[in-house]
Write a structure and sequence with these properties.
193 residues; Aminopeptidase; alpha+beta
Length: 193
């Protein structure tokens, strides 16, 4: 799943070294962003360990350089967004969904990576997991970024969560692809080739 214009790709976490790098990177980004601090980082790690059995973890890489992390949680033992927020809308109905979480990029690599990173996330969730969409807990910045590329719906009330005002969202890949086909077919082609 790497893009043709660059070597950005998702490296599946399999080794002990990968596991350690994954946790080190996401927790350091969270601390730098203010989502966690030295007082509560272990509690945050424990929260996400509850979902390990249904998760697929990735290191986001550009060639051999690790840029960040991403976790896909399959809806086996619940999903953090559905468990931790008051959900008022379930637009996916009975369709299979996943959650994208621990989606981090180290500070020195932010910016130009947005589009290829969104493509990698879309490719994995839609084509490998075959999910209709994904739920996500997003702060304002991530919500704005996601809306640039996808059909994003609020599925509950925002709240202070993990250090910031956070919105529970559903990213509808099926309807989103239809919308892109009509409004931005070049972007859809980029996401699907």
């Amino acid at each position: 799943m790497s893009t043709q214009k660059d070597s950005l790709h998702l490296h599946k976490v399999t080794s002990k070294e990968d596991v350690e790098a994954f946790e080190r990177i996401w927790s350091s980004v969270w601390m730098e962003q203010g989502y966690a601090d030295s007082q509560n980082i272990e509690e945050r790690k424990e929260h996400y360990r509850r979902y390990n059995s249904g998760s697929v973890d990735f290191l986001v890489k550009d060639g051999s350089v690790t840029l960040g992390t991403m976790r896909i949680i399959r809806n086996i033992n619940g999903l953090p967004v559905l468990d931790d927020f008051e959900i008022t809308s379930r637009p996916w109905g009975k369709k299979e969904i996943v959650e994208v979480t621990l989606f981090t990029v180290s500070k020195e690599f932010r910016g130009a990576m947005a589009l290829p990173l969104m493509r990698e996330m879309y490719s994995y969730v839609h084509f490998v997991e075959r999910a209709a969409g994904t739920v996500a807990a997003a702060d304002r910045r991530l919500k704005v970024l996601l809306k640039r590329f996808f059909l994003v719906e609020s599925i509950g009330k925002e709240k202070m969560y993990e250090g910031s005002l956070t919105y529970p969202l559903y990213i509808d890949f099926e309807r989103g692809a239809e919308s892109l086909q009509q409004n931005n077919p070049e972007l859809l082609k980029y996401f699907t080739k």
